Amino acid sequence: MNTKNTAKKETAAQSLPRITVLDIFLASAKLGLTSFGGPVAHLGYFHQEYVVRRKWMEEKAYADLVALCQFLPGPASSQVGIGVGLRCAGLMGAIAAWVGFTLPSILLLGLFAIIVQRMNVAEASWLHGLKLTAVAIVAQAVWSMGTKLAATRKQAGVAVGAAAVVLLWPGTYSQVGVIAAAALLGLIMYRHEAAAESVMPAAAASSRDVHGCRQSFIYLGFYFALLLLLPLFSQWSNGGWLSLVDGFYRVGSLVFGGGHVVLPLLQEEVVAHGWVSQSDFIAGYGAAQAVPGPLFTFASYLGAIYGGVPGLALATIAIFLPAFLLVAGVLPLWDRLSRSITMQRALQGIHAAVVGILLAALYDPIWTGAVRGTADFVIVLCLFAMLVFWKLPPWCAVIAGAAAGMLAQLFV
């Protein structure tokens, strides 16, 4: 009898799709080439690719990961991508996910470092069309996640409340507070419910074996050691490359909220030290809005201005390394914690809160920063229909959005 059960389990395991490092790299590279609109929009693209299309993660597992990355400093969307790679294929999967998602933006901004001063892309019509595409992508993510994670009256109430609080009192700390409050509400509302089955995908089993608690403490130890020691080494070396690494690592370690929040910190770091002029900084910011991928790759542009290809490489690694170490260190501990009955009850509230936070971000800054009038709303409506009802891939919406932005400009 035991032999038959074992044989059935082995057959089921063999039928599961095997996610390779190459699969992760190719999927993340496609996202890196098409993910416009900033970190909130990136979460929508990730949801479509990893959850809906490829089914590498379940809705709840993805919401867990998004909630965790809201607590961590650094670029939230990049951390979610790293977490997906780590769960699916271990350390190499995490590296492949990060490289694939960031490399297109790094290369484009490296080129912009050479020619961006002769360009004016900040008000380009096709860029406005891409912002409208981001509205449709985020709306699709809210629609899809809401129907699964905020379907009951209790969950919908938590989602609406979370959206209201985040909109009325904007800021990273309000998001963290909302998630914490939602966890408490989940404990209260679902205190009589039994534990559900683990939402961790089967591919994560090997990752869990490799990245246990001991490895978590090693990664976290490196994170804090570099945060404490790099300033000392920078002072002893009297500037140079170590100062560059120290500055960008510190920014990546201490900024909460990611995205645009990092810009004033980078400006203080590079302009105040005379590494980059104010005019070059502003020109690079305009270029960073025009390329897909994480806004943190703005550091790649700044590093290239400061020191060419070596500066680009060091600045990029330094600003993303804290995010990588934090996710690799915290995610295995989070996975173990999330399997407890108490945490599963709290997660039901957290899942609904994540939907509410995404809904709030859909309005501000995504909607308010992109939709200027009736024509823009019509474009968003058509793009939303392409994604939700016609089931077209996101890259089709990206192309259509850019083209619609240029066409709309002709009739203004």
UniProtKB/TrEMBL annotation:
It comes from the Bacteria. Keywords: Cell membrane, Membrane, Transmembrane, Transmembrane helix. It is found in: Cell membrane. The chain crosses the membrane at residues 95-116, 128-146, 166-190, 217-236, 287-306, 312-334, 346-363, 369-390. Pfam families: Chromate_transp. The keyword rRNA-binding does not apply. Its main location: membrane. It is a multi-pass membrane protein. Belongs to the chromate ion transporter (CHR) (TC 2.A.51) family. This is Chromate transporter. The lineage of its organism: Bacteria, Bacillati, Bacillota, Bacilli, Bacillales.
